[in-house]
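Re: the 829-residue chain
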Amino acid sequence: MKQQLKKWLPDGIAILLFITAAFVYFLPAVIDGREIAQHDHTAFVGAGQEVQQFKAETGETSRWTNSLFGGMPTYQSSPSYPSNSTLKAVGKVYSLFLPNYVWLVFVMLTGFYILMRALKMSVWLSVLGAFIWAFSSYFFIIITAGHIWKFITLAYIPPTIAGIVLAYRGKYLLGVVVVALFFALQIMSNHVQMTYYFLFVIGFMVLAYLVEAIRTKQVMHFIKASAVVLTGFAVGTAINASNLYHTYEYSKETMRGKSELKKDNTENQTSSGLERDYITQWSYGIDETFTLLVPNTKGGASVPISDNETAMQKADSQFSQIYSQIPQYWGEQPGTSGPVYVGAFVCMLFVLGCFVVRGPMKWALVAATVFSILLSWGKNFMGLTDFFIDYVPMYAKFRTVASILVIAEFTIPLLAILALKEVIIRPETLREKPIYFYLSFGFTGGLALLFALFPQMFFSSFISSDLKAALETNLPAEYVQSVMTNLTDMCIGIFTADAWRSFFIILLGSVLLYLFIINKLKAKWMVIAITVLCVADMWSVNKRYLSDKDFVEPTRRMAEVQKTPTDEVILADTAKDFRVLNFAGNTFNENNTSYWHKSIGGYHAAKLRRYQELIEYHISTEMQYLMKTLPQVGGDMTQVDADSMKVVNMLNTRYFIFPVQGGTVPIQNPYAYGNAWFADEVQYVPSANAEIEALYKVSPKKTAIVNERYKSDLQNAVSSPSDSTATIRLTEYKPNYLRYETNSAGNRVAVFSEVYYKQWQAYIDGKEVPIACANYVLRALHVPSGKHVIEFRFDPPSIHTTEIIAYLGLASLLLIMGCCLYSSIKRKD
């Protein structure tokens, strides 16, 4: 027992070190109970409020919400399944129940540490590896932005790869357990894009293992290990069957799926997925890649340049007001919360690894790094980007191509640690071939020095073309050149300050390495000193983007969703179900409205494609009309042309939240069509283009526009005689259940102001009937004459099927874990 404790003591100390570091980073906020005012978190709260409140009141989980975009599944906005409960408990244990934010950094550190130990690294090298991975600037930036699912997914990737390493080391049972467990946790964290990107890394690494197996004539071992890894992936996938299946099915109907519309700009279309411009909107600039070495290569984050002390030291005071409106970032992306910085000396070690590390794994990591950088350039390197969009499965499903740099953030520190291990084991390599050391220093420290001394030799302009155009448009002509000259000096000051910083960090790290090579410093103390250097370097950069000033009291963070007098007025309306259109902000980039109301706007990256197209073709135009007209008529809706807002009306938009000086006012819309109505006629059209364009020509209250493929669902109804006595009334509302009562003299087609989605089920007097899609996004039913009860339910049978698969996956994992434990005990005996 003593020997076991002694064996695990260093690992225990490492874990305590990680806990301490994570706590210290977030002091004093974590003690004060303050939180980050994250846009995405606030949006998540708003989007999930209706479903959360429904569950609190009924104990029932709704898979549908009507609180944003007229209605959408919760598969991506709030994924939760009964089978996840066990896995969530495991995740809590793994995070040691640490406080918010602290546990995030802890699991990021611990995951890479597990990988390092699987690679047979010493404790100190493993600790260094954990820190230089976890403290990469991007991870702290996404915490600030509220991209927590992405962060957690990334945290579970290194231990997943650790399981793969164990399998190829011949530890089959342990390998399959680690792969299955962490892959399951990774998938549950619900950021498929990050998982997808790292499948490329795994592919490179497995290829390296294959080359090694062929070289050492151990192909059979490679086959067994690969089978083990695939089994682990299969079990992890099965455990997440509900999440994966419904995400996959939902993606077909979202902006990530193929549009039915045929557009003139065919070059921008992809065979499936998002449009090219949208996919590549956030592309890393080619010269922006140097942020890996010098963080402020492009100025940092898109915050006012007046916030930067270094820049303001060179500022002309007469332009101070202008500089408060000019962003510090001058790169090619539309905007950014900060750069991808992996550590200056880490880059030096990575380059050194290219020389001193042996074997195919080195080339796998180098190839993955280059692969990541080239694809991050997106529209700046369209030959490769087009190839991946057109021919690589699923690549066109994801936007923000710059985020693939997470691969480089993984491979660079990994090869850096492998290099340091090689130097420690064989210091004679650098004694015999010091050129490796000098070249590595030259490629990194030398480059940083040249940046500091001759910045304009490498970068021709420090002012973007968009900013230049804006200055020329908005400033008096006599000031433009002076501002641009001064602004250039300010940007150069920002850049060169960081270039000098990177140079001295690399110089100091190189001195430590050199002292070890000439036997003036022990390996252990060298590693500790490099750890301190790298942590200090990366810590200080991260504090630029996530510091104590970003934390606020919880009450302040939720101030954005505080109920306003306008909300009070709208909430006083006792109607069971209606929608609200908020003009007092970015309608399609906020969920504050969704917290209190059912909004026709919202914020989510995977909204239904048909709804997005309705926004582009109709809702945006109608909003522009209302924004112009309502102030002119003093908010008097009787002076508004109802036909100029008929799509807004068919979405049952009962209230507008309109901005006025000092706040907002509610404006009731008397033209809203209501929850449902009987159409006087049905107009069948052959295509999606005909559907969406017909809405310009007809009144949706009178004419239902239906694609011909739904003709049989409406029993071939062509027209219905007008019947002023016919009624259709909503009598019960839940997010996943609607009940209507109807009465009509003849057979009619009813159109419901509810978003169409194929997994809804409709019943007339308890008998299931097909649902047609009408007016591009709404539901329609053929309703027989007489009195009837119509019910809509959202309880997809597929959820029950996938839950069975998930529980079988959990059982398989427990069985494998039991076998692993039994094998371990038997081996000790």
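Residues 29 and 548 are 6 Å apart (CA to CA).
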